[in-house]
Amino acid sequence: MTPPADAYAVEPQHGHSPLEALLARGRLRATLTMLGPAFVAAIAYVDPGNFATNIQGGARFGYLLLWVVLAANAMAMLIQYLSAKLGIVTDRNLPELCREHYPRPVSWALWIQAEVMAMSTDIAEFLGAALGLNLLFHVPLLVAGVMTGFIAFGILELQRHGFRRFELAISALLGIIFLGFLYETLKIGPSAGGAALGLVPGLHGSESLYLAVGIIGATVMPHAIYLHSALTNGRMPVRNDEERARVLRFERLDVVVALGLAGLVNMAMLAVAAKLFHGVPGYTHVDSIQEAHAGFSHLVGGTAALAFAVALLASGASSSSVGTYAGQVVMAGFVDLRIPLAFRRAITMAPALVVLALGVSPTSALVLSQVVLSFGIPFALVPLLLLTRRADVMGVHVNRRATTWVAISIAALISALNVFLLAQTFGLA
Fold first, then answer.
1. Please, are residues 228 and 87 in contact by the beta-carbon 8 Å criterion?
2. Which residues does 335 contact at the CB level (< 8 Å), separation at least 6?
3. Which of 8-12, 30-34, 231-235, 296-300 has the lowest mean pLDDT?
4. pTM exceeds cut of 0.70
5. pLDDT by residue (tens digit) across 312-352?
6. What is the DSSP letter of 346?
7. How far apart are CA 425 and CA 198, in angstroms?
8. Smallest Cα–Cα separation from 380: which of 20, 103, 113, 101?
9. Cα–Cα dist 403/62, whole Å
């Protein structure tokens, strides 16, 4: 799943490397050309699962969980950069390196759990896009779910014409989501004071903890961790460690810009829901995206409801295609298996279609899927951390000790939250 060299590389001239040839065209042009992989990964951070958890969090607890969104996004920046760095330095993706460096049973076990995470991801993505189609065009949910599969295939087809087109398409959809919530924020005007208080860490009971873990699961996505290393390996050929370091600097900017936009969208979602629904009779316990859409229409107006539905559809359509690509990376990397894309798409979308066919509340299924995803984060993060701290894998670009300890703290925090959530759920705490 490594991108073809001619998808990004610039033809070297007069003995210059591709990177030197690109830089010769001007700093701004070089920067714009190098941006892209993080924007594809970032779409996983504003998928429909984020809509569900952020809206519920804002409606039920006001601005209380805003700090969780900010913290999750900060964690995501470090995690995604480590994944991108792994791909740039080794020219391999994370699943491939796990297969190379760990025993076969470990690699297969990691693959199995990654596939479970992929199905949980697809539930969120397909349900979100189906809801978007239903809200915009009144398409029945099950039919809308099938339509989402075709939309995802259409976006993935762009890869046949070069990965740059795929990156630009996903970036454009991310832009639509951002503009949608920029409009909502300006229209509704969340409280600056309330938002500032929401940045102070705190929780209020097990329900807020459940949503906090869901927000982390919806923000730090396991499949995005696997995917980012595949998006960067071989993207820009380099001749030595000095050039590799320059590419890494570009990638840091890519991550900060792309995930910064995703973080702003997530914070806007929660803040808008807090302003619009929290404490309002009949809306404090918004339990579905449909109810949220109706609330936008009733309390703000049809334009706000339209912006919300369009952003939701863009989120579901783009994230479902990115999720499919990530699934291919996971299977090929961990166990060296490749199956037709259509067959893989059919398998992973099946649980979402079952949910739609059974009439299960889509929003409840979305939130539950994000909680499940949070349990998969350590299984992606720990191998990433172990590999990027090894000098025999990373050479001079091995993690600094401080980076390693911060990443260890993130993995420990997420794991502790999950254990505590289990204890709360089963009455053990």
1. yes
2. 99, 107, 108, 111
3. 8-12
4. yes
5. 999 999 988 888 888 889 999 999 988 887 777 777 778 87
6. H
7. 25
8. 113
9. 33
Token pair recorded at residue 23: 């830089």
Cβ 275 vs Cβ 191: under 8 Å: yes
DSSP string, 199-251: TS----HHHHHHHHHHHHHHHS-HHHHHHHHHHHTTSS--SSHHHHHHHHHHH
Alpha-helical segments (H) within 91-204 = 94-101, 104-137, 141-156, 163-188, 192-198
What does the block give as tokens for 229? 């290393």
Task: Return d(Cα 185, Cα 190) in angstroms, integer.
Answer: 7
Specify whether the CB–CB gap between 254 and 39 falls below 8 A: yes
Query: % helix / strand / coil in the chain, to the nearest 5?
Result: 80, 0, 20
Q: Taking a C-beta distance cutoff of 8 angstroms, is the pair 325, 315 a contact? A: no
What is the pLDDT of the chain when averaged over all its residues? Answer: 87
Q: How far apart are CA 362 and CA 356, in angstroms?
A: 7
Token look-up 């984020």 returns 50
Residue 279's Cβ-count burial label (10 Å; 0-12, 13-18, 19+) is: exposed
From residue 281, alpha-carbon distances to 101, 128, 188, 290, 395 in Å are 56, 26, 18, 17, 59
Handedness of CA 54, 60, 65, 66 (dihedral sign): positive
pLDDT of residue 92: 95
CA–CA dist 244, 252 (Å, integer): 12
Q: CA 123 from chain center: how many Å?
A: 14
Residue 3 carries which DSSP code? P
Contact 46, 263 (CB under 8 A): no
Backbone angles phi, psi at 426, to 5 degrees: -100, 15
Residue 1's pLDDT is 47
Reported as type and span, the H/E element at residue 356 is helix 341-358
CA distance 276 to 274: 6
Tally DSSP H helices, then E strands, for the chain: 19, 0
Residue with tokens 């102070």: 200
Per-residue pLDDT of 55-96, as tens digits, reads 989 999 999 999 999 999 999 999 999 999 999 999 999 999
Q: Which residue, 327, 302, 325, 364, is CA-closest to 131?
A: 364
For residue 220 the two structure tokens come to 């730090």
